[in-house]
Every structure is written in structure tokens, then in C-alpha cells.
Amino acid sequence: MGISGATVLTWSHNISSSLGLAPRFSTPEGRRFKVWCSSDETQKENRMIISVTGATGFIGKRLVERLHAENHRVHVLTRSKSKAEQIFPAKDFPGIKIADESEWKECIHGSTGVVNLAGMPISTRWSSEIKKEIKESRIRVTSKVVECINSAPDDIRPKVLVSATAVGYYGTSETKVFDEQSPSGKDYLAEVCREWESTAHKVNGDVRLALIRIGVVLGKDGGALAKMVPLFMVFAGGPLGSGKQWFSWIHLDDIVNLVYEALSNPSYKGVINGTAPNPVRLAELCEQLGNVVGRPSWLPVPDFALKAVLGEGASVVLEGQKVLPAKAKELGFPFKYRYVKDALKAILS
């Protein structure tokens, strides 16, 4: 009696599935081959449960969107439930849990991993009170996250904590080059980053800790670029300040991908610089920006104009540092945007 190829495929698949084996198929000519089939069980095994602080911010929002799109369970840890519910409406983000502070511990216990992005923005006018809040907002939330992780029984403790910090850790310089092995600077932002990281290091030793020192994030509708472009346009597209400052940047997509990789890849641990491989001087950034938006680059934006918008926070842009992502390159992280010209085109075109 003849057996058709379709019959062989069906029978083999049924037997293999019941045994949990990869099905082996035969063709009518007798050639044999294997087909690996994904199943709902496999997808469930790969599904993460991630708790995120700072989820309503520039980076956090995009990260939550990415996690949700890939069917991971997300807990948005927030201090403003109403704001989070506006940003992540249930009709667009079914299954996302939005939790106020009283629920953080419950959410963190049983999570696969935690991402800590919370902190008051530094690109604002600084006063002594604001500077105190910039530091305390980071220390307070990080301390709470660490406390919640450490209090979890072993079987429901998160396996990984990805905690943001910043390239401000290195201080500023027009001549030095910084990587993950470089010492900390001596200015205010370096002090903030040291205490921020020190707090994260108090997490249980069994939890993999990845500290992402983030550069200036470039993306649509937020971040430094949203504040720089209007100034740039008003002053005919010239450099900001002297133009000699280093600008260590990263595209929003790349920083989100880096955080995502740190959640899922056990090789990502310790300090990792979240910057693109090719930092630029600010004059080059402005020239490329001018080319993209069709503005001449001849009239510099004076320091006072930037300080009028950012206050003392303008130091992040006006002083700068050259930071290289040595660890990310060593790990083989695939940067989508390696050059600022390509990043700006993608954002502004």
C-alpha cells in the first residue's frame, strides 16, 4: 500500500509531539529531515515578567512598549498612577499592571527582572533645592527597589536588576577619553552618579546587576534634542557654546535595545556605558543637525541662551565628555545607529 508524503508528515508530527521530540519527516524519495516547531510552552518559558520604575519617562515609555510588543508581562512602578494610566491606557496596553508605591513590593516579588530608570530630569534650571531633589529622587527610588528585591524569598527574587546611571559619573573634559574603567569625576553630577550606583550595589549578591551609564539620548518628542532644536533654529544653526565640547550620545532605540539585552543576556553585568561608538564634538553635531533640518551653521548659540533654558543643567551640554562603550562593543552589542548623522536623519527627516 502506498503512503503519501502528507500522511508521513502528519503521523510523524503526532508521535514526536507526544514524546516531546523534534519531528523527523520523510519525503516520498526517502530523504529525511528535521523541523523544529515552536510551541506555546516554549514562548511561555521565554516570557519575562519585568517591573519598571521611570516607565513614564523618555526611555521608560519606549522600553515598556518594546516589552509589551514582545508579549512580556510588564509592571509599571509609579508614584503617579493617573499619569501612568494616561500614558499606558488599558485598551492599548492590555495586561500591563500599573502599581503605586504601596504595590511595588508585591510586583517585584516574582518578577524575572527589574529596570530602574526613575529620577528627576537634570535638564532643568538648578537651584540648591532642585540639586538636592535630583540626587535624592535617584537614591530614594533605587533604595526602595533594592529593599524590595532583597526582601523577596529566594524562589521569587528577581534574577537581574538593570539600573540606570549616567556618563556624568566621569566628570567633564575636552581632552580625556573615558570608558568603564575610568575613575569618577569630582563635580556635582559625578557625586550623584557615585551615590546612585553605590545604592544599586546593595542588591542581593545572587542578583545580576547591570549599571547602564547613559549618555545624551536622542529621539523624537523628548530628551535633550527636543530642547536644543528650537534654540538651534532661532540662532541659525550654529554650535552651542564653544563647539569643542564632546557630545556622547545614543539613539533612543539603541539605549532601549541595550537595556532589553541586559535583561535577557547573562553576559551583561557590571558597568556598561550606554553611548554610541562615535561621540562627536558639539560643533559637528550642530553641523549635521543643520544639514538635516536645512539650516545654515554660522551663528553660534551663546552660552547664556542655553543657560536661560537649562540653568546650571546646561553644563551637561556645555562641558561634556568623550565616553566610549567599550563593554558593549566587547559583548558584541549591535548598535543600530553608530554615527550621529544617521541618528539625526532617522529622528528628524
Please provide a written account of the structure:
This protein has helices spanning 5-19, 40-46, 58-69, 81-87, 104-108, 128-150, 188-200, 223-234, 252-264, 282-293, 303-310, 315-318, 326-330, 340-348; strands at residues 24-26, 32-34, 49-53, 73-77, 97-99, 113-116, 160-166, 177-178, 208-214, 216-219, 246-247, 249-251, 270-274, 280-281, 322-323. α3 (58-69) crosses α9 (252-264) and α6 (128-150) packs parallel to α7. It has 349 residues and is an alpha/beta fold. β1 (24-26) and β2 (32-34) form a beta hairpin. The relative contact order is 0.11. The protein is globular, with a radius of gyration of 24 Å. The longest helix is centred in the middle third of the chain and has 23 residues, at 128-150. Mean pLDDT is 84; it is low at 1-39.
